[in-house]
Amino acid sequence: MADGIEVRGLRKRFGPKTVLEDVSFSVPPGQICGYLGANGAGKTTTFELLTGALRPDEGSIHVAGHPVAGDAIAAKRAIGYVPEKPSLYSLLSIREHLALISDLHGLDPREAGKRGEALLEEMAIRDVANRPVASLSKGQKQKGLIVCALLSDPQVLLFDEPLGGLDVMASKKLRDRLRALADEGRTVFYSSHVLDVVERLCDRTIVLHGGTIVADAPTAELAAKAKKGTLEDAFHALVGAADAD
Amino acid sequence: MRTELEGRAFRGLARTFWLLDLRGQHYGRATGAKAGDLLPPLFWVVGQFLTVSLLATLVLIGRVDLYFFCAAHLGLAALLTFSALVVELDEAIFHPADRLALAGRPVPLRTYALARFLNLLRYVGLLSLALLPFPLVVGASLPEAGLAFVPGFVVAFAITQVGITALVVLLRALVQRKGADGLRGALAWVQILAILGLFYGGQAMVRQGSTAITELAASRPAWLTFTPPGWLAAQLEASDLSAFARLGGALAAVALLGWIAAVRLARAYAHVREGGHLFAVRELPATSGALGAASGNRPARAGRWLTGTLLSRDQDVKARIWPQLALPGAVLAMAFVVGRAGDPWQHVDGLELTLAFPVVLIAVIPHLVLALRYGRDPEASALLELARLQHPAAFDAGVRRALFLRVLAPVLIASAVAYGIAWRDPLHALAHTTLLAALALATLSVAQRSLLREVPFRRSPQRGLVHGSAVLVSGSMGALASALMVGYWRLAGDPEALAIGLGAVVSVALLVSWIGGRR
Questions:
Q1: Average pLDDT in the B290-306 region?
Q2: Domain A5-78+156-244 class?
Q3: Cα of B514 to nearest chain A Cα, Å
Q4: Inter-chain touch B101–A132, beta carbons under 8 Å
Q5: What residue segments make up the domains of chain A, in order of their start?
Q6: At residue B472, what are phi and psi to the nearest 5 degrees?
Q7: What is the mean pLDDT of residues A181-193?
Q8: A52, A80, A106 ranked by CB distance to B8: nearest
Q9: What pLDDT is recorded for position B1?
Q10: CB contact under 8 A, A132 and B15
């Protein structure tokens, strides 16, 4: 099993509602894969399945070569996750979160400290890193989440709507950082509704609609198929066609 | 239970949970304590328990024998720990933020469960530190106490605390499964009532030199020996080898109970990991049936549902509402303790506190209404403003109903039951409570119209603010209630005149309530 993400025959139901149906894809190391879909398409559920927060009804998931169902801890050690919802303890500071993550991942405290400070500096939140999360702005919280995700230098990066609340400079920095990480051989799985960013950033794009994959191709190829040659146009065409069906 | 313990992760989680507890208890919100403050919010919990324990010791010392002293303290510790855990348990073991904050992190489930369980034990340990010293030191100095008292009492105390903790965990797991959120709210009353009873009842007893507790201890009720504190106290009183063997057996039994609770907790965490809800998901009441009819139309239901839900879930709202009832509760408790809770329908004397209770309760209502201005998520209430309610008066009526049914009605029912028992005449108690309920409804309407002109829960929690308008409304309504009570007193002992007066006041109060609620 190669490193990266390997998903086979994924199915997830919540009560009578099927959220994901026979979803299969793989993302190799060194690739940034965009994951698109309308609201309720099943994107966040996929992320929660990838992180082991939910269990699939059917199918298998391997992250960095580790089966999420069988060895969730090993899989999670390889993951850096930025969830869609703000998921920090509001009464802890960002630095306290970094200390916790360092302990959870078993990182060398000194190395983790240095790396954490560098990331805080890079995301321009060093000054506020000792303040309780509750007192931070939305963008600062989002930067905190990103710093937390990158602290363990993970092999696989799962970013679910990471640009929410980020300013222009921070967005640019994050995109550059993700590209650099992919070039170093990391796997990046990226979901966003900002399609022009996906178009510029992602090597490949998967489009999810109604719980099934309706397109999986290199981003440029997908955009080229659309009349206007943009990913947004392609997305509208794909989702609209699926709805018509 | 397999341990599967990862040292670093365990330490990190334990430290994090402790920090969260220090900063995040709802007392912290009530007192405005923030992360980094010198006095962490838990200080208030511990300080309160320390004071209650001291007061109980002062009430008992020199008045009761060793057996009763131990039974009372162990019973008190059990009651207070039980109520504190019921109120605070979500923060201690079921923090809803955990699922999101730890998603995607390599946290073995059992490491997490153990860290949470340690956090719970640490919390209980802190409560125990507040409840143990006074009875331990003072008990050891009692003439009947032997050398073995100190270790014996510590073991008995540990049995009580571990047993209660395990019981609460198992009860909470059961409540979670059944989704009985209301039961948790009802149990929170235990804490309020216990503290009130001790503070004011004990204070009155010390001041008046009442011998009631001495008499109770001297004629020890038979049922007391069958309660866990009574049984434990009997072992401490016997203080022989076989008694200590029985204590050892009891310790082993509660340790087993604790283990079962820990296993149950681990299962609960697994459920949460799978996306299960920590809170029962509440829905709008049905449009038909008695509930629907009582709620009126849809905006009224929405108002009642929103207010009722936040009254049961938002710790800020709870912390602002419930402590306000301390004063009326104290007056009611004192009325019975000092014997000034006479029946106005039968007597002319001994009515002082029977008549003071309505005045105090009415004076508190504007502050309760004012408390509804604030909520933990004020921005969420902006949605209601944007929604431009078509029938704001109906929405307000729903808010009022929720406050009345969830906060005032339990007080009124409790007072009616207490009066009914004390007066030995439920009909008189019912008539008296009807008067109170009508006054409360009228005051609610006036206060809402004066103080809550915006959507409820619209402002973020603040402290230190004194609202002149609330004080004014409170003072005015309190003065009006005082005048009514003076009239009530003048008619006391004349049931016919009282019935006519009561009917008139209730009619006017309900009319005011109706007019006040209209916009």
A1: 62
A2: alpha beta
A3: 42
A4: no
A5: 5-78+156-244, 88-153
A6: -65, -50
A7: 93
A8: A106
A9: 40
A10: no
